[in-house]
Amino acid sequence: MTNYFGSCLCGNAKFELQGEFEGFYLCHCQHCQKDTGSAHAANLFSREAKLTWLVGSDYVTTFTLPGTRHMKSFCTCCGSALPTSNAGGLLVIPAGSLDTKVSITPTAHIFTSSKAVWDKDLGDVPEFKGLPE
Question: Which residues have C-beta within 8 Å of that of residue 119, sequence separation ≥ 6?
Fold first, then answer.
């Protein structure tokens, strides 16, 4: 069994995951665009992994969009996305919340019918190792 560790940006909430991931999806739905402020969410999924809050569980809150199954847990101090469990027992882990490196690569892009219009040909966009001068 593999152990993964993660935290929010401010470090108030820290967690451990024990287990493996069954999928890694880049979700382009409009809900994920809104709650990430980006083109897509990058989430790992597991039905078997166990989530343990090491510190700061009192900083974690969960928002469920009324009338949908869309949920997001986040730190009430810094707003960082954090793992959440849905009613079906599926654990959703924002990939960027992990401090431990994962070797799994994305399984698929999903909800691409909602893809942001500017999210295309990104391989042609210049890259910088830091903030451009």
Answer: 28, 39, 40
